[in-house]
Queue: 2 jobs
Job 1
Amino acid sequence: MDSRSNLKPQSGKPEPQPTVPARAFDAAFELSNLLETGLDKDSLAILLELLNAGVNPEALATVVRELRREAAEYQAAVERVNAASAVAAASGAAAVGQRAR
């Protein structure tokens, strides 16, 4: 399915037609890249679908910023846990090595 089309169709139903013409989507994607938004084609397609459905652009931008902030916080927490696990593993290995002497 093309990333410019609606969400995946239910089984047995015809595939929905894109609500954004291909040339317009390509131009929007190019603009998105020039502005360094970090949006991939699928994300941009979803955002355009929401805008076409009447979602307030400012509210949508706020949600995207909030999701990015939360994703960054989550990634930082994962990195802290991984670092703590590595330190604990190293400490455990050192303690086992000392007992073996």
Job 2
Amino acid sequence: MEPRDSPLTTHVLDTASGLPARGLCLRLSWLEDHSQQWMELRTSYTDPDGRCPGLLMPDQMKAGTYKLTFDTEGYWRKRGQESFYPYVEVVFTVTSNAQKFHVPLLLSPWSYTTYRGS
């Protein structure tokens, strides 16, 4: 699969260094309708540019609630840096499987920001 074909992507930037957050572990989960339990779909790592482009194949995206969990504590620990947030969870709703979703994360040891990108 070409990463540009994925309906879901993310990009993590380390705002403390001004560089991409390379090697940050993240998990993608989906909330099952009936059981209301999170089902993990994939574990991945950001590439040297801080991106994780191919989180889902185009035919895997369906309407529902998804969660991206970023292991921020592990990321900062590898850099010898203390941090306030051990992980960041971004929960979002997909209403149409025909859309593409980009979920950027701006990260420092003491704060984070996220938004729906394009």
